[in-house]
Amino acid sequence: MQPHHPPPHPRNSNPPPPPLLPLLHLLLPRHLLQHRRNPPSPTHQLPKPHLSSSSLSPALDFESHHSASKTISTVDAVDLPKLGFCPSNFTDYCPCQDPKRERRFRTGGMAQRERHCPGPEERVFCRVPRPEGYQSSVRWPESRDRAWFKNVPSTRLSSVKKDQNWVRVEGEYLVFPGGGTSFSTGVKGYVDGIRKAVPIGSGEVRTALDIGCGVASFGGHLLDYNIVTMSVAPRDVHEAQVQFALERGIPAMLGVLSIHRLPYPSRSFDMAHCARCLVPWTANDGLFLLEIDRVLRPGGYWVLSGPPINWRTFYKGWQRKPEDLAAEQASIEDLARRLCWKKVAEKGVIAVWRKPTNHVHCAKKSKLWKTPRFCEPRDPDAAWYEKMESCITPLPNVNAIEDIAGGPIQKWPKRLNAIPPRISSGTVQGITSQDFNKDNQLWNKRISYYEILLSSLPTGKYRNIMDMNAGLGGFAAALSKYPVWVMNSVPWDSTNSSLGAIYDRGLLGTYMDWCEAFSTYPRTYDLIHANGLFSMYVDKCDVLDILLEMDRILRPEGAVIIRDHVDVVVKVKRAADRLNWQSRIVQNEHGPFDPEKLLIVDNSVALSSH
To answer: Where along the sequence do coiled-coil regions lie (predicted)?
Structure first.
């Protein structure tokens, strides 16, 4: 499938796959199949928000009275049936990381593990079923150590990684003892070793990236030091590792280093980590390490453990030839030096490098050191289906060699509400420091109101939260007082992307196009928040496509808050009713006369069977 908006993508070079009409005939009535083959004209889409006097009626009439709305009244009048569940083999369906689809794409360089989303003719219009015996997820913090086996009924990792203590099955539970490929005896001692070289726990390191994360025990342990980690792994032979991570309540995404940039802005992470992740760091002119360099903050740390580090001591246990390991480490050392990174430690299986705080010295030494070229003028933050390049992403200019490129970042927790350097410097055009402070105040007020509507919000019931249109991250910041984490999603094509500023605040997030599926497994989020999202996508894709994706990633007992103009909310509710969501339209914190309304979905009220 070609992305709806990005430039042509290599996956389009393959011949279009055959439509899944046999499956659709099983899932949809005949008249709806005809409707999907011949989609309605643009006038049958959601109306664009339009403020008129009728919207301000004191009668709190949620029906639309605008001319734009009247054009779709005949469509609304059709009694559309409820959407049923997909066949049972769709339990772990990931549309853009489907093992069956990836076989059509070329192998080599992990390209087949990239996002390959289905086109319109391949999409399924049914709800992803939960596995038999599914139970409400174990609550945090207990979930970090154990989860219900029937929620993720996979035994492969517990068998293949048994000697490394990733996960084991004990009765009804999956138990996570805290082991990993490089720390089979436990993650605590492993992190203690890293702390000798990296200021973990000081507030200086807040955001981390873990490539090849396993079941995310590393990221889970870093939470004890107020560090949030984006744990990334592909859907590969180690099935369900990201699913395990999210079931534990630890931030994670499906992803791979292959052709395209990781979906994060430049200068996002204070630390990047790889524990025996088998990435060929120096292949293709150092392409993958150059991508790590792009997303590392000035002064950020890269931690590498496992082969080939300290190969003289460990080569026998790794069953590798010493000369091969020696050449591999020498190649990594050379590339890191040419990136102007400074090696700060090597002990045991762990080595640590640090990225420079600016490129003044590096630019002067580039010819002498034969550094990779600096990238030509290109948005360093563009990262949605953007190809990686074998060049150094230049840091912002500085006035003096001791300055930090892009501006200094305050330590956590002050960092959360401090003016992000990308805003104070004017990088996010149209947003001032005053706007930022007002946004914080606004979301503090809104969260107080949300607590009334969803009484379980402060109790820890909702651990994994998705903000589908995160803005400046105010929603996530206001929730930081609770035991939750938020995936801050920002539309990839925003005129002035705010995702970099969100990372400046010490929060996690990703670029996203909600006309496609998110890079996660089903049933991985407890609460989904969509502020103005459906108005934003009114001319881009069908509302039902977005709702089905929300339904896929939402846990069966989860909740949704949709915030939008009343006309849009009414249309979304009608579509949401087809999913058997337990929903209601309510006024916002400004009272009944405000044209913006909320659609509150709380599926814990009455879990529907499948």
So the answer is: none
